[in-house]
User: Fold this.
Amino acid sequence: MNEIIQFFGGATLLISAIAWLIRSITVHLLSKDIEIFKQTLKVESDRELALLKSSLELENEKVRIKLSGLEVRRIEVLEELHIKFTEFSIRASNFTYDPEMRDKNELVEIADEFIGEYYKFYNYFRNVSIFLPKSLEDSISKLHDAHFNVAIDIGNSSTDNIEVILNTINDNVSKIRYETSDINRIISKEFRELLGVNS
Assistant:
């Protein structure tokens, strides 16, 4: 009986030792596999991250080049707009300068010239307004509406109602001149900001 107990005790001890050995080998192999898996995962994620970073840098460079080109174009537009707007504003001022000193025929001639210049400037302006802040675009769009309406009225007027038209011109002159000056200031400010020059 003692021998049987010793046999089973020794067998149990042997089985336990074998089980512990198998478990140790398995844990060792699994920990090795886990380490290899971690390393592989890290290498792959680093590679993916490097590819993503490279792709983002390339996209950023493309966007920067596009924006740089648009910025250059915007500077050109603001410079050209400032020149054309100033020239057109001078013509508008000449149109409203001392209208009471002119006869009906002279007023009609000047009004017709102004209408031609009006269309020329605003056709140009429509093509470049996309480069401007919306508030500036709106200010320029409606600035000379009163001048234009008066010019049309002069062409359609009789000698009898010319006095009413002259009063309309005189009523609007100071407002338009102030708004013109304000718009010129805003265009200059936008231009200087793009150039990085403080006004």
